[in-house]
Fold this sequence. Notes:
The two termini are 18 Å apart. By secondary structure, this protein is mainly alpha-helical. It has helices spanning 15-40, 45-49, 53-73, 75-80, 86-94, 100-125, 146-168, 177-191, 193-196, 202-212, 218-240, 269-272. 63% of the residues lie in helices and 0% in strands.
Amino acid sequence: xxxxxxxxxxxxxxxxxxxxxxxxxxxxxxxxxxxxxxxxxxxxxxxxxxxxxxxxxxxxxxxxxxxxxxxxxxxxxxxxxxxxxxxxxxxxxxxxxxxxxxxxxxxxxxxxxxxxxxxxxxxxxxxxxxxxxxxxxxxxxxxxxxxxxxxxxxxxxxxxxxxxxxxxxxxxxxxxxxxxxxxxxxxxxxxxxxxxxxxxxxxxxxxxxxxxxxxxxxxxxxxxxxxxxxxxxxxxxxxxxxxxxxxxxxxxxxxxxxxxxxxxxxxxxxxxx
Length: 273
């Protein structure tokens, strides 16, 4: 649980946290675009030096896993909870750990942050980002088709949420939640990406598709991660009970205020809801 000092009543509209959520996913998208150009653009020295696509995906996975861990542990991530994903926010709302209006604002901020992050990447990387081998780091179904991509996205999203909830429910392991999440991101990009592009995140996919201009497969990345995480939450609470879900933050063991559980405010979560 957060250990922030009491700092007055919890605000109804937490504009600082909304902005942090958008900025965090924007930074994640910048990292994704830069790393993809560095390892997948045909003119990149790394692409030339590393002809094995599995090895390149492993390096991309490592970079993005570390990015996720760094953002979750950053001051902004510690304060907002570092969902960076509408499916995560939706699931914690369904579990009663995020207020409805906070969830809506988080999701809007995440979508805008993802689009903005790719926009910044366009300015930084220029035409290299639009090259067909990079294609704005868009997530697309693999050669096995949309059905396999949907099932893959559902499965990896469900497993991620199960791990987050199970680790978060453990006093011993909860502080290490960011590392579990980052490790799964790295493994998924390395081994699952050929099936679905590895998104788990409607806003992350929207951020790239917005600039590509093709939304034909967006429904997969909208529905599969959300349904997967909601299913995982249902299974977890059926086994452990709702009380095992302590807070909506991915890293709750810090001194930052929490608009979700109410830590750091005079009012309790129930009083301020």
